[in-house]
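<backbone_tokenisation>
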Amino acid sequence: MNAGRAPDLRRALRPVPTYERAVRQVSKMLSEAGIRHALVGALGANAYCTRPRTTEDIDFLVGDEAFETHAGGFVTMRVPVVEFDGIDVDQIPLSETLRVVEEGLNRSPLSEGVPIAPVDTLVIMKLLAGRTRDLADIEAIVASGADRELLRAAVVRAAPDRADTLETLFENVERDR
């Protein structure tokens, strides 16, 4: 896959085709509420991978406007969706740690009307999470042809303490070829 190719919702949903309705409907609800959002997590990564993986939930990164703060500091979701068609839906807020990827919400390409986080945003989020499956997702994205220089520059800018981990993942991909 070349670096300029847009993410593909069909590719993202290949391992879980029954999630399509939920992804589309939740995205539509968030859009109608004026909430910036982008598909992330395994499905977001799948949109950039030639070897997608399955998942048990749908993850959307959402802007601050997705939440309302009430008296006493009580916070609620403006679109209170945590499940759709029996599928868990996570609205991931821009926590202090994730604030470094906020601009990715503003440049998320649309695929069939659904915003999917840019590849560099996904990689940064997965590096910050640091779980084994997240690092494996990064390797799958890189092995699928993601622009390494773009990823390197984004990580150095947003999460410089994770640059060595990214380089190790690049080496793993080369070793596995």
Observations:
- The first strand starts at residue 37 and ends at 40.
- The first helix runs from residue 9 to 13.
